[in-house]
Automatic annotation (TrEMBL):
InterPro entries: Glyco_hydro/deAcase_b/a-brl (IPR011330), LysM (IPR018392), LysM_dom_sf (IPR036779), NODB_dom (IPR002509). CDD domains: CE4_NodB_like_6s_7s, LysM. The keyword Membrane does not apply. This is Polysaccharide deacetylase family sporulation protein PdaB. It comes from the Bacteria.
Amino acid sequence: MKWFKAAVLLVFLLVTCFSFPVQADAASSKYVVKGNTSSKVVALTFDDGSDGTNISKILQTLSTHNVKATFFLTGTGTKDHPQSIRNIAAAGHQLGNHSYSHPDFTTISTTKMKKELADTEALVKSTTGKSTKPIFRAPFGATNSTVLKTVGDAGYTHTLHWNIDTIDWRGLSKTQVLNKVVNNIEPGSVVLMHTGAGAPGTPAALPEMITKLKAQGYKFVTVSELLQMQDSTSAGGASYTVKSGDTLYSIANRNNVSVTELKKANSIPTSSNVIRVGQVLKIPGKGTTAPPPANSGSYTVKSGDTLYSIANRNNVSVTELKKANSIPTSSNVIRVGQVLKIPGKGTTAPPPATSGSYTVKSGDTLYSIANRNNVSVTELKKANSIPTSSNVIRVGQVLKIPGKGTTTTPPSSSTTYTVKSGDTLYSIARVNSTTVQKIAADNNISNTSVISVGQVLRIAS
């Protein structure tokens, strides 16, 4: 009898164990800047805030050209203009989560992050019948390891950044927005645009943007379609399309591989250094290519940068980079526009801090104003008695800038660049975050294909 009871108990325990599997922890959300593909595809993405003024114009253009895009939605925007959000979903565009009230996720608790995501998901789902999962875009593009872990736990497997920032929210013209995209397009690009009244150049530029990209052979995909192409790429490497001025050494150097490894991966004879413009090279064990290293003792953070990528490009460790810039060892937070000292090189000091003010202009946001003046959004809110939960500012409003001068716009300045062997206006423009057209205009260059080694160019900043 005892033997029978023991057998029954054993069976019960086995059934219990196999009936209730252990729940595995969700993985951190994967941070994506662009698609890992050599195919000519591009994902147009639109961030929607509380002001969706241009949604109808954008949807009409996308429909006319039979293009599907991705819209990252906020809870406040969905609450403010629900019919526009329904129209986006009804047209078959992909939806993503952009938080509820657009806070900087690196400054709030994990509990608050989860609520921002959950409240937006619930509202969008009740409004459209569709989910925002599995894609998320961080407000201001601000992320760190805690944010990615929390977002991943909430069911958002991918956090989408961008490699082309139109900065349309600054009120750029149609031509400026168009050039930002067309001059910087590459396979797998993720383009960031906005739907609000502060970005009038976007709906104006969109028809010609689509037409020009199609003429270059580009196809338009949603973020999920782009991620499927990325996920199907072999984990061991990526690809790079050779551009004018490239050499095997420059490509290998930018991707932190040796010329020997690059030749081997592409079956190039060891005695040869010949590559052709347009040739697609496999990059062994690497993802998307990084820009060239900074040539001075300081570096201005650009869209898509991380401490690791900046340290890697400048041959320093992340620890050294953090120490040189007084960044806590536990933090990986950097912001677009932030000037970092590169240890072991000459340093460029930031301008001296005084106090001042700034008059809000059309297209401004708290983040853009804070970023231009090298202060945090939190400091800017505190100096102007703006509630931590609010991001509302008005055109004409005068804001106090803590620790800054009285300039209302950044002073115009320029630097010079001496053309080196292998340089092109495109490569110089890309390194200096400007456009070929701007350099040509500033230097009275009529033929943008012709520059000379040793020529000194003025680069406006």
